[in-house]
Amino acid sequence: MDFTPIIPTELSSGNIIQELLVLSEEVVVKSAMLEANYNPIVISAIRDMLRNVNSYYSNQIEAEGTHPIDTEKAMRKEYSLDDKERKLQMLSVAHVKTQESLEKSITQGTNPLSKNFIKDIHKIFYSQESMDNFLTVSNETRTVNMIPGELRNDNVKVANHIAPSYDEVEHLMNQFESLYKLYPYMTISQKLIYVLSSHHRLVWIHPFLDGNGRVSRLFLDAFLHSIGIRGYGLWNISRGLSRDVKNYKANLNYADMIRQGNQDGRGYLSNRGLEQFVRFMLKTALDQIEYMSTCLKLHSLSERIEKYCYRANASFLRINPLPQGSDKLFKALLLKGEVQRGEEVQEIIGMKKTYSSKLVSELLDRYYLVSDGPRKALRINFNAHFASQLFPELMPPEKS
């Protein structure tokens, strides 16, 4: 048993299917365009916010999402009194922290395809605070305590998919690392096809007793991060998958299909099934890029910031009013990336030193601004409430 073909190819030439390459190139080009209007510091702030969003949607696919506002509270150790809600908060925090750790590791040159890296995803995720609540795994015959990062030692069936025998997993993971190796001569568009194909194949191998869906999407994010798609992180694919979860799961299942005759490739699994899955993933990526492209138009985002401040001060948003001049400072940060405290803030908001210091202090306390120290420059922070109003439909409605 193996998971070939590793990418969908033309039957005659063995090359990647041309239609998929065209779609892939469109993803790469449109993704890069998302960075066009923004300072790198603002781009970093949006990426930080989207990790929280990514956590919500990846967990929502497993029917266990908690609102990004509640995740943000948990990061500040503000937990729900409800035990179930608290556990879901910790699950989301674990996802965010794991994604941050993986991105740092990739930046330092770690190979995302290595078996040890994939095991580390599972280990890092399930070793986070309070994640021991999710280590007990039950099936029809027994209950076991899963060890974070260890490959499964039992056979599993998920819906209609009978995963490979547990004694084949080690070999399949070694094969996975070898077959999906990328080479410098490949274009980013070609690499993207490999990345999306590998997501299904990792789900198909099902290397762990539990958590394979989350781990496979964290792996997908890390692998995408590693291939150098400009603009990646200003959109995330998990939102698109969650919003169309029925088709996501249907396409995963379709790609599980074994080869259907001589016109369906030369591998053990269906070339046609993998082609349909990759096409679905590329179209989902395009949909998310186009959505964020609309959200990130500089002029309209600036207008939404102004509207947010007006609505907050008119008591429409159920939050305390923002200090006068907040909108001017936010819009300046949107353009500049960061501003210095003191005279620069005073000049932007047109207020004296005492008031500007008070404004900065309040906006820092309320997580609208961040800074590396009491004398360091200020940066905008898209906290979950702020982001939910600035980026329409990015998040679910806030609970009443």
Automatic annotation (TrEMBL):
Listed InterPro entries: Fido (IPR003812), Fido-like_dom_sf (IPR036597), Fido_containing (IPR040198)
Keyword ATP-binding applies: yes
Keywords, alphabetical: ATP-binding, Nucleotide-binding
Gene3D superfamilies (UniProt xref): Fido-like domain
One family name in Pfam for this protein: Fic
Residue intervals of the Fido domain: 113-283
Single GO MF annotation: ATP binding
Catalytic center residues: H206
Keyword DNA repair among record annotations: no
Residues the entry annotates as binding ATP: V158, A159, N160, H161, D210, G211, N212, G213, R214, V215, S216, R217
PANTHER family: FIDO DOMAIN-CONTAINING PROTEIN, FIDO DOMAIN-CONTAINING PROTEIN DDB_G0283145
Protein name listed in UniProt: Fic domain-containing protein
